Amino acid sequence: MLRAIDVPQTAAQALNSLARARDAAVLAGGTTVMPRVQAGDSGIGALVSLGRLKLDRIEAKGERITIGAATTLAAMAEHKALGFLGGAIESVGSPTLRNLATIGGNLFMKQPYGDLAVCLLALDAALTVVSKKGARKIPIAAFLAKGIGRDAIVTAIGFTRPAKGSWFYRKAMRRAQNSAAIVAIAAHLPQAKGRIDDARIALGGCGERPVRAAAAEQALQGARLDAASIAAAAALLAKDAEPFTDAYASAWYRARVLPVHFRRAVFGE
Amino acid sequence: MSSSVVTLNVNGESREFLCRPGTTLLDALRDSLSLTAAKKGCAQGSCGTCTVLVEGRAVFACLVPVETIGSRPVETLEGLAAGEALHPLQAAFIEGFATQCGFCTSGMILAAKALLRASPDPTRADVVRAISGNVCRCTGYEAIVDAILMAAARLRKTATRKRAAE
Amino acid sequence: MQDLEKIDTRFFSAEREAHLDVVGETVPRVDARSHVTGKTQFYEDMTLPGMLHLKMARSTRHHALIRKIDLKAAEKVPGFVRALTHKDVPNNWYTILRLIGVEPNDEPVLPEDRVLFAGEQIVAILADTAAAAGEAASKVKIEYKDLPAVFDVEEALKPGAPIIKPHGKNYFVYEGHHCRRIRFGDVEKGFASADHVIEHRYQSAPIEHAPTETTGCIVKPEGNGRFTIHSNTQACYFTLDNAALILGLPFNKLRVVGGTVGGGFGGKVDVIVEPIAILAAMLTGRPVKYAYSREEEMQVSSPRAAERITIKDGVMKDGRIVARKVTLYVDAGAYSRHSPYGTTKAAAHMPGPYSIPNVWVDAHCVYTNRTPSSAMRGFGVTIGDFALESQMDRIARFLKMDPVEFRMLNAYRDGDTKAHRKKAEGCALVEVMQKAAEMTGRTLPERFRKMSSLSREGI
To answer: pTM for the whole thing?
Structure first.
């Protein structure tokens, strides 16, 4: 049962609250924490809200974007600089959910939820993390692998906006709207002189957390962005994907459709 | 585990009540303020029957602790009709048979209200998207979408007439 | 597609005498206004002072003996008031149709020594708040000894299968028989005389109603020894009668206020939450609410039964079905509830709305360690229809016959004897298909346009 809910005004206060109560949980949009609290057996005794920490700003300095961790998905969808993420944001839940859900919260979700985390992995985002020791930046891959411990808070997410024509996203769902991923693909395929250079492909629904399709990325290095090279890369996705079975789809099905949806992400069909 | 006094602006009125830490907006509305139109269908944000408006935006009241609302205005279904006169959304739901058991109706109407405030001339796809967080097990949704579009048309007509009269 | 007339008077013109003034008219719902203004009173739209919240500690095993129940940690949760077990229940049997003689008693209100499905309610926890009740329920420690479980209807009926029911059989016994049986004519002779014999198997999964309003009730003790039960049951009298029997109360001590159901669909016709909530109100003197969480509604409340149906048909070249043999298994799950009745309906519904001279049906009501199933729209009949009509389409395709014409050829006519020996009357399948053909722009051959439910013309 909840003993307390804290709505601090500074990050230092928030960290103190987390340190004081070992069964405290961070509250951003509440879309994952509140269902757990209401299920009755969460073990969460206190909530520390990020609502007044002013972590909801979006800054665009040239191509460098910084988003406060408590920024709602709805606010992101309305920001001019984030148009390229529009498809991904729309695919998360419903407009009502997106009025509450935050980009920071999305980072912590287990697949097949956490579509923005898949995008951020493909964007090679850096997370600003604050703890009693101060602020540091950690690459998203490190965060996804190890987390940040319970005495730290993610306060911002930064990435470079992809060049036009280099960003691809697709989420396969069982329903047209408001459904989790069968598989999700976020691909950053920048080109220099007509050749792909430094591809980053992130997959959702292919493991507990988003994964980078390293084998497929390597195969695309120096290749043209055409049907043949995409098909070759698609065939290599399985090397880095470990899809699971849940109520949405079986592991077999996810593995089977993954290369198809990758191709559709790039070419539309 | 002590209760605290919380003040909320609900349907234009300042309402004060006592509640335990982490009380959700839904429980506060239903148990402390006798505003029971918003329903508890899942307590997970997956059914939409608790949808209310906070600062004009649709949210799942079952996921919002009251301590995080502050002075932002809250709107529920009870605040929609002006006395005995029904809001066009309410009238359209009646005429269009867009309500059967009635349990999803409050959430549907408020999600629609938020949509029409932001987009007075929505497409059918816009309406479907706006209510994509609201589950209905009775109607099959089509009557609800039709009713919302009908209400939107009537509201636009009223607005046009009003502008013409001014 | 042409416009639908409100009432098409071209059919059965000789019989038409009804003076209809509401059928065919658009009449607003009586409750629509209160729905759209938020004034409709669902059972949970009330708060009673001093109300207790009831949450259940549930089985985590499919089939197990209950070795030990430890409430120590649960009792320490602030707000905990009381726990109820089977010892507190006056007559610990829930048998929904006992009042019309359907036996045996096979489902305890709260289990005495064993659980038969994962999610079965074991200990009722009462507390001052829903949060306290939920936390205390999660802290009830139960020790189980697992027993072999069975999850498939045919596995449950195999010799050597673990027997999971106290009466010694994994199936409901119908007047001494292992299933509902229909024997009409001689199907083996029918198959021998047929041009083709076509057999297929059909399978459905359990289907959850998923109403937006979860099952629940609030019970209020009145000052005079009576109890008012505010329930979202679809069946107020089921609730009243069964609760009275379980609690050993005269019927007039219970008043059920209901009829406002946030989605029923057949999923709110069992009497699971009310008896224990009334008992809690009796023992504490306080109002009690027992409401399913969304997870309980989806996992624990009864779904439509899964069914496995094999249909073997003897068919002539000209499209007449001369023999139909149906073997049907209803997965009742762990307890009977309405399934024995549903299985009877399934049997009687065979062979579908068709006149077939030789019919053989075995309809089994089988117990497995799955969530007990119960009623849902078209209870007992809907899945049978899925199998029957899929079969009809497959036969038509096999015979290269039009599926509409194939059905009209075999449809019941008035006066035909059905397989369970009732006379068919008020038949209209032929006319409905003629109308549907017209509405979908299909022209039936003259022979079929002339057919009627009132005669055998064209057959």
So the answer is: 0.96
